[in-house]
Amino acid sequence: MQRKVASILLLVGLMSLLAACGSVSQEPLRLVLATTTSTQDSGLLDSILLDFEQQYNVSVDVIAVGTGQALEMGASGDADVLLVHARAREDEFVANGDGTQRYDVMYNDFVIVGPADDPAGIADQPSAADAFAAIADTEATFVSRGDDSGTNTKELAIWEDAGIVPAGDWYESAGQGMGAVLTLAAEQQAYTLTDRATYARMQVDGLDLAILYEGDPILFNPYGVIPVNPEKHPGVNYDLAQKFAEWITSVDVQGRIGGYEINGLQMFVPDSEQWRAAHPDGGS
Amino acid sequence: MIPLVYALRDVKQTYGPRTVLNVPSLAVEEGEVVSIVGPSGAGKSTLLRLLALLQPPSSGAISLHLDRRIITAANATTADRRQMAMVFQRPVLLSRSAYDNVAYGLRVRGERDADDRIREALAAVSMSELAGADARTLSGGEAQRIAVARALVVQPRVLLLDEPTANLDMGTARLIEDLIATQRSAGTTVILVTHNIFQARRLATRVLLLMEGDLVENALTRQFFESPRDPRTAAFVAGDLNY
Amino acid sequence: MITSLDAEVLAIAGRSLQVTVSALAISVAIGIPAGAWLALAHLPGKRLLTTVVYTGMGLPPVVVGLVVYLMLSRAGPLGSLGWLFTVRAMVLAQVIIATPLIVGVTMSSVLAVDPSLREQVRALGATPVQETLAQLFEARFGLLVGLVAGFGSIISEVGAVMLVGGNIEGRTRVLTTAIVLETRKGNFDLGLALGIILLALAFVTNLAMVMAQGRVGNPR
């Protein structure tokens, strides 16, 4: 009986060792792309990446995290290339020598969403900062990402613009991704700042929140691609990272980014240098 | 000359400040059935544990002599231990069948095809019908019999028994006594701890009386009961001692 | 869409099982001997070690994940292994989470075995290894409970595997991280479906273990 138990345990051990070996034996070229949850959750990457993988016979490992963690991954050499949206911090990243160069890729915009009846009356405010001030004045519930993401960074910049330090029962810091925060806001009929892409995707599924404020230039949300600097982080796959940056900014791929829609809604506006050169009128 | 099996010299066992056993000298010859008697707490079980080489004594020397080897608790190999078997006062059976319990000693020795011997041993303690029973469901008396059977089945040269009939009714106790008598005839050296002086008288070739750790009497059975050297032995045999 | 999703879901469930079984097997290979040793050996500082093990049983998985992440990061001491964002990293984190559990459960179930058993099997001719095996065998029900608990904690863990695995599609995405992703996307129904698959896997595995327990519990 003891023998049986021992041999079963041994067998399980061997099998799992084999399984563990099998899982790592066939390593194709890997490119680690650290990006924000918005690019993954919107479905954009799923729709365009296959082309790059086939063209260069590479497997792109998409790690979708907050912008803060994505930049940190780059700064520790754990990612080869970043696709993020927090302009000031991206420039700092390159200035520190962690990235070689930042390239414009695309933009979408942030919108302020909330209950359709707009109890804080933000819809007619002259600026995003004024809209935030109106929310703070009426102490209407506001859900913040609170996760050091690009959206969170943008939100804090607007509060700073408004000269307000948000605090109190009405201000909820969720510490979660965009989808979760939108759900949370809808459940409480609260305000929040969101990227248009995630909002549009979730609205299709019946999210009970309305766009109440949009259009202020501060809500412009540009995405950049940054290859991690091989001189500072020798382990990174710089060649592929650079190819990725060239690929995603190419006119062809830019066109597909512009064409990516969810239920008839365009998610991102292509904005690379190459695209702008090919379309000087700005139309897409 | 009959070979010596056990030799003890100045053996003392202490637990903290308490001396629980003090045996200045003792020898056991091959084929003897030595019974250790005495009141509760006299050190009988302690002496048996030392003889089983489960632990070395606090001081003094105790050695087992087999095949010209001098074996102590410190140098005993598994092969040496396999010449002995012990039945504990409170037997702990393995949580498997009665059959598997009896088979255990043979299996650890690598003896696989011993079904006949196992069934024989079970029959000898009239446990054949309960061979397949889960050992945890056995009564105290049944467990005791399995404990005897699993010790006997390995055919030890030295058999150590600690109150092997304590939980048994008279009929079953006689069955076990007969098995011990058979061992004696076969030349096995037997050390039997018992509180039952009549059992000692029936089975033993020699009887030791322990009182408060001291070896009071060490005599051939007839002499022990009829003309002991120590007056306390006579009192113990007569049942006049309070314990 | 449905069929392609099915293949993907199957792959994800398979990966969950792979990570769980690998981590559990390694944890058992380390934990059962270590637990038996802790229970049976006489050593100084045993209480301290025991306390360390019991504390380990309550390690917050996400903290384990963070520490493993920092170790395996290219900037970390084990960065040269290149394990970050691989199944190996996930298995490593899970082993660290589950091993104290197996050690603790083994220790307490071996300690619950009658201490006299060891001597009694020795008196029947068992070698030291056979003595230990006999004690482990007596403790087998406790060990199975440890296995079941370990399996459950590993397969349902999300924080650590998300951090060190990165939830990479087709590579390190497992059921729990896929559920997080789908929830984040607002695909609650898909998240729920994955959750049901997770439960079904746990149920089937536990059923198998319980049946095994019945078998080893009933002597011939």
Description of the molecule:
The complex is a heterotrimer of chains A (284), B (243) and C (220). Chain A is of the alpha/beta class and 284 residues long. Chain A has helices at 2-25, 37-41, 44-56, 67-75, 87-95, 128-138, 150-162, 178-188, 196-204, 238-249, 251-259, 273-278; strands at 29-36, 58-65, 81-84, 103-114, 142-144, 171-173, 191-195, 210-213, 220-227, 261-262, 265-266, 269-270. In chain A, 46% of the residues lie in helices and 21% in strands. Chain A is globular. Chain A starts with a helix and ends in a 6-residue tail after the last helix. In chain B, 34% of the residues lie in helices and 28% in strands. Chain B contains nine helices and ten strands. Chain B starts with a strand and ends in a 6-residue tail after the last helix. In chain B, β1 (4-15) and β2 (18-29) form a beta hairpin. Chain C has a single domain (2-40, 47-213), classed as Orthogonal Bundle (MetI-like fold). Chain C has ten helices and no strands. The radius of gyration of chain C is 20 Å and the shape is globular. Chain C starts with a helix and ends with a helix. Chains in contact: A-C, B-C. Chains B and C meet through β6 and α3 of B and α5 and α6 of C.
CATH architecture grouping of chain C: Orthogonal Bundle
The Rg value of chain C, from CA coordinates, equals: 20 Å
How would you spell out the order of helices and strands of chain C? Answer: HHHHHHHHHH
How much β-strand is present in the residues of chain C? under 5%
The outline of chain C comes out as globular
Q: CATH first level of the largest domain in chain A: which class?
A: Alpha Beta
Strand content of chain A: 15-25%
Classify the fold: give the CATH topology of chain C: MetI-like fold
Question: How would you state the average pLDDT of chain A, rounded?
Answer: 87
Largest interface in this structure: A-C, 42 and 39 residues
* CATH class division of chain C: Mainly Alpha
The total strand number of chain A stands at 12
Q: Assign the CATH topology of the largest domain in chain A.
A: D-Maltodextrin-Binding Protein, domain 2
- Total of DSSP H or I helical runs spanning 4+ residues of chain A: 12
* Low-confidence regions of chain C: none
How many domain modules of chain C?
1
Query: What's the Cα radius of gyration of chain A?
Result: 22 Å
Largest sheet of chain C: none
What is the correct CATH architecture of the largest domain in chain A?
3-Layer(aba) Sandwich
Termini separation of chain C comes to 52 Å
In CATH, what is the homologous superfamily of the largest domain in chain A? Periplasmic binding protein-like II
